[in-house]
Amino acid sequence: MCLSQATCYFFRQRANFAPDYELSISELAALDMCQRRAIFKPMTPEERQDLKQRCGGSWKLVLRFLLAGEACCRREKSQAIAGPCHSIAVTSTGAVYSFGSNSSGQLGHGTTEEEWRPRQIRSLQGIRIIQAAAGPGRTMLISDAGQVYAFGKDSFGESEYGVQGTKLVTTPQLVESLKNVFVVQAAIGNFFTAVLSREGRVYTFSWGSDGILGHQTEPNDVEPHPLLGAIENIPVVQIAAGYCYLLALACQPCGMSVYSVGCGLGGKLGHGSRTDEKYPRLIEQFRLLNLQPVVVAAGAWHAAVVGRDGRVCTWGWGRYGCLGHGNEECESVPKVVEALSHVKAVHVATGDYTTFVVSDEGDVYSFGCGESASLGHNNAAAADGQGNRHANVLSPELVTSLKEVNERVVQISLTNCVYWNAHTFALTESGKLYAFGAGDKGQLGVERMNNQTERGNPERVEIDLS
Asked: What is the top-level taxon of the source organism (predicted)?
């Protein structure tokens, strides 16, 4: 909601707070809208003032910060998460369903038995979940009270060979080390976990003793550490975790910006080099492109951003065509996907060498690795056998199979982890969920027929997320 709309709304009904004669009309209208946001409501007066100063000393900037976070993370809305061989679905009322592989208890049902049918996590009844994250053998859920629940492997980050996390947690357990942090988002990489507080601070767990994230920790450290450096005093609205790096979308008085930190191989940090970054560093290229980032996505080895004007930028490893530039070359700085110049994008999702883009009209485009049929391009499979189903796509192609659902797609989620067969979810405006790709562990949420381990066309998952 823009400021002019907020001001009009303010005058249409009674304000829910005492007048402050030192504030302008626009500032009062912005404060009124802030107080209607779910995350802002429980804050104390002191916490609200701290947030105001952190955002630049203006309620208008606080409102922009809150709205930006809601828009890019689907807070208070339904969502589906395609994890590595298991899946999580959150309804608009905060109920959670899980299905797929359960070898580590990552489904949260108190067992280690595999489930192909979406099953509600009953132990969470009475707790409203607003956000979820899934990693190898691990799940994290965020409640509307800012509490974090975790289950599956008991480590916050996985070593390359998965030797961490010998203890299994099969039901959601409150993360005690975060009890003093009001969390609104979590992101799981292969070597670390990051969480974002409602004030826009980033905390990380388990990135090893080499200090690659600006603090000295052991690999099995379960205490959250604030991410130091350039974003210490800048409010972050979204975080995205790749295999060994982290992106942070920040909201500053001068506009939106993206910072990156971690492993720079392939140029995926976006700074024009392939060197590692110990502390978060601003990606300067967006200023040169005159692009205001509003959504950021971190794939295993490449990254993507959607701009306010609908342009899409990608960078990093270009293997299998996952950058959408018509080749397999790496890009060490963000580059506009020219093949999408006719599309106004509103959402982007990235996986292991795979990218999906959703337009403002609800159309879906995908490109990159075609393994597991997770791109959704199955239109020629009948004529060419199974060959085309797994073809790599070097430039964005419309996922025509999703046009057939006759409904606007609002979110795409795909597996973002190496060494796993990928699957994809498409969530529609009315809360219908469609799945395609690998389903060998039941992660698609549809019954396996005749030993069929994957689905090339989107199939409806029998769960209502509205």
From this structure: Eukaryota
Question: Between the CA of residue 159 and those of 190, 191, 218, what are the distances in Å?
Answer: 7, 6, 12
Sign of the torsion formed by the C-alpha atoms of 396, 266, 84 and 131: negative
Residue with tokens 């974002």: 196
- Among 264, 386, 379, 393, which residue's Cα sits nearest to residue 326? 393
**What would the pLDDT profile of 218-240 be if each residue is shown by its tens digit?**
655 667 889 989 999 999 999 99
Any bridge partners for residue 433, and if so which?
Answer: 427, 461
The verdict on pTM exceeding 0.85 is yes
Using an 8 Å Cβ cutoff, are 162 and 136 in contact?
Answer: yes
SS (HEC) of 127-167? CCEEEEEEECCEEEEEECCCCEEEEEECCCCCCCCCCCCCC
**CB within 8 Å of 409: residues ≥ 6 apart:** 358, 362, 363, 364, 402, 426, 427, 428, 429
Q: For residues 10 and 364, give the distance between their C-alpha atoms in angstroms, rounded to a whole number.
A: 37
CB 271 within 8 A of CB 260: yes
Strand partners, 2: none
Query: What does the pLDDT look like over 4-52, one tens digit per residue?
Result: 555 555 555 665 656 666 788 889 889 999 998 989 999 999 999 999 9
Which structure tokens are listed for 255?
Answer: 């506009």
State the Cα angle at 64 between 261 and 194, rounded to 5°: 30
Note the pLDDT tens digit of each residue in 212-222. Answer: 555 555 655 66
Residue 419: how many CB atoms within 10 A of its CB? 10
Q: How far apart are CA 180 and CA 146, in angstroms?
A: 9
Look at domain 74-457 and name its CATH class.
Answer: mainly beta
Ramachandran class of 443: left when φ > 0, alpha when ψ lies in -120 to 50, beta otherwise: alpha
Sign of CA dihedral 157, 160, 163, 168: positive
In the sheet that holds 148-153, the strands lie side by side as 129-135, 138-143, 148-153, 168-174
What's the CA gap between 84 and 412, in Å, rounded? Answer: 15
Q: How many CB atoms lie within 10 A of CB 147?
A: 17
CB 433 within 8 A of CB 427: yes
Phi, psi of 146 (to 5 degrees): 80, 10
Number of H helices, E strands in the chain: 7, 28
Residue written as token pair 């002019």: 4
CA dihedral 425, 427, 428, 433 (to 10 degrees): 70
Query: Is 303 buried (19+), middle (13-18) or exposed (0-12) by CB count in 10 A?
Result: buried
